[in-house]
Every structure is written in C-alpha cells, then in structure tokens.
Amino acid sequence: MLTGRKYVAALTEDQATFAEEIGGAIRSVWNTALEQRRKYRRRGKWIGYREQSREMAEAKGDFPWLKAVPGHCLQQALMDLDVACRTHGPFMIRWRSKTRWSPSFRFPEGSKIPVKRISRKWAQARLPKIGWITFRWTRPLGGAIRSATMTRDGERWHISFLVETGAPAPAVNLERGRVGVDRGVAVLAATDDGRLFERKFIRPGEAERYRRLEKQRNRTERGSKRRRECIRRQRVIMRRVRNRRRDFHARTACRIVDGNALVALEDLSTKKMSASAKGTVAEPGRNVGAKAGLNRAILDKGWHGLELAIRNRARKSGTVVRKVPPAYTSQTCPTCGRVDANSRQSQAEFVCTTCGYAEHADVVGAQNTLARGHTGYRAWRPRGCPVRESPTGSRGNPVDSSLSHEAGIPRP
Ligand SMILES: [Zn+2]
Fold first, then answer.
1. From ligand 1's centre to the CA of 268, what distance in Å?
2. How high is the pLDDT of residue 113?
C-alpha cells in the first residue's frame, strides 16, 4: 500500500538557495508550457506531454539555468501539467505566480534516493544535483521509497516520501457500519448518528492581529519593505489557520471513517462552496471583498479538504466513499419521506411538517445522505416529484418504509 511520510528538512544556505532556483525553474516551465497549451487550444489543437518534453530538452541548450536543475523534476512538472490539463482543460489550470505559489518539486525515481540515519534525531537523503540533505527523523519510513518531494511552506522546507509499505490494502468488510455525512455552513460536518464536528480555526487574537496588519499594510507603499513585512506576518497567521484546519480534517476523518464500510457524502456543487468561501451564505454582510482573506479564514470549513482527508483515511481501511446527489437532503424527512421546505425551520432546526420528527438539520441531511448512499437515489425520490422541480407544492408521498435506512439496514 502506498502512503506518505513528511519530514522537516534542515537545508544549508546553499541548498536552500538552490532549492529556490529549482522552484523558480519549475514555475517558469509550468507557466510556459501552460501558455503553449492554451495557444494550441485557441487554435483548436492539442499539445501533449511528449511534444512538450522534447521541446524542453531542446530549450536546455539555450538556457543554462534550465540545465542546472534536476531534469526529472522538470519532466515531472510537465507530466503533472499534462494530467491537470487532461482532467480540467488548460483554461482552468492556474498560473504559478511568484508570490502565491510555494515552491514544490518531485523526484520521481525513489529507488535511486538513498536514505541514512545519522543520529537518533536526524537522517539524510541524497537528491540528484542537490546532494545530501538533512531532515528531522520523526518517524520511520516503513517501506521502499517511490518518490521524494521537496516543498516550502513559508520559510520552512519539507521533504516528503511516497512509500510502498508492502502491506496489503485492507479488504472491505461489509458487515461493518455505514455512515452518512453532511457538510454544512454552520457546522463542518454532521453524521447521521447525531455527531457534530466543528471548531474555530482562527483565534480571536489572531483575527484581531490580522485586521491590524491589514490596516497597516494599506498605509504602506506598494513594493516597500514594510509592506512585505506585513504580508509575511499575515501569511504566518494564515498558515497557522491552514494547519489547524488540515489537522482537524484528519482527526475528523478518522472518527468518521474508522469502523465503517461505507461513507456517504453529498456531492457538493462548487458554486455552493465558493459562495460560502466568500462569506455570502452564512454572513452576507458588508465589505465582503475587502475582508475576503480574513472572512475566508473564519468561515471556510474546507469541505473539499475534509473530503480528501476522508478519502485518504478510507483508502487505508478499505472503506467505500460514495457521493450522492444532495438535492432536498435538508428538506426531506428521514422517517416519513415528506419533502417540504417548511420542515427546515432554521439553519439548525428540522421539524417535519407531517409527522413531527425533530432533529438537528445537519443530522437530518446526513441521514438522508446515508439513505441515498446505500439504497440508491431513485428510491428516495418522492413519487411524482422530478428532482429538478421546486419542492414547494410537490406532494411528498411517503416512501416505502422498506427503503428507509432505519427499517432495512442493520446498524452495528
Ligand atoms: Zn416526517
């Protein structure tokens, strides 16, 4: 089974400078190749990895800086771009800007990267052209290295390895439980058994400090030293928030996935996601644009991040993650099947207008998501009510109780 190991790297000054140069080269290769792909697309044509890789090899003669960096990393960047463009199309892929993109590059040939312990706390790995780099040995590798990636987050470099542990992928045990998850605006995640997962990712003091830095920054000149310092400090806060969020996602994912054979998630639209990121769903408020950075940090639950964490955890335990259409999950009664917008009394409250079933609205969403996840969506579509129609005025016929998750499927 493949898994990742990430360590803090302690680069020497020369190594850090060189790593920065490699990052710069990767960035310009990415941007040039992306521009080329877009040009081709505009003419109705397509250029692939093979062609671009060949052209890059030729360009090495003209640009010595391109020749100085590890060739495999450059090829890897072109390959990554190829995959990205095939999946999303060249116009959806982002430029890598000098200020926004953190350097990251991958050495694909893991078998040629030797690793040795040099003390109890430190180890070294030899990377092509960079040489031996030292990193903090916080846990064993636990398998054969497939690839190594250097990344910089702020001022700190990390080295991560993709490792083949040799352990067989766990088999799915269908006897185990199932869980439905509803990701919401007020609460990060709710499960069908009534658990709510939520925490604030930014502390009040941090938000205050961020606001103060924002004001300070607006008083400084563009490109000045003081402005750069403000931005740097703001980024330190944001990185902390990001790390906290990622950590919470990982922990939440463990608590949701472990012991379950099936995790049902609603298939969220990106529109809903970005609306919440801008703070328009939960807090329409003023000045959304001006405070976008801070607002996002406060409101952003990172739904996609949670999904990634769940998938990552599920991969290890062999759990199946299924996405279901989310239409009406928040307006459908899990016991009688009635679909009514009025059942949703507020952001958090759900009281069925027909049978009086009352529960936290997000938990209801999770229950419906689970029901759809294992009985199939068609079974839960109210009869005579096409999915895309407005729910108001539809007659929510009670659904056959044998299809309800409470009646049909045993829970552990
Ligand atoms: Zn009901």
1. 24
2. 94
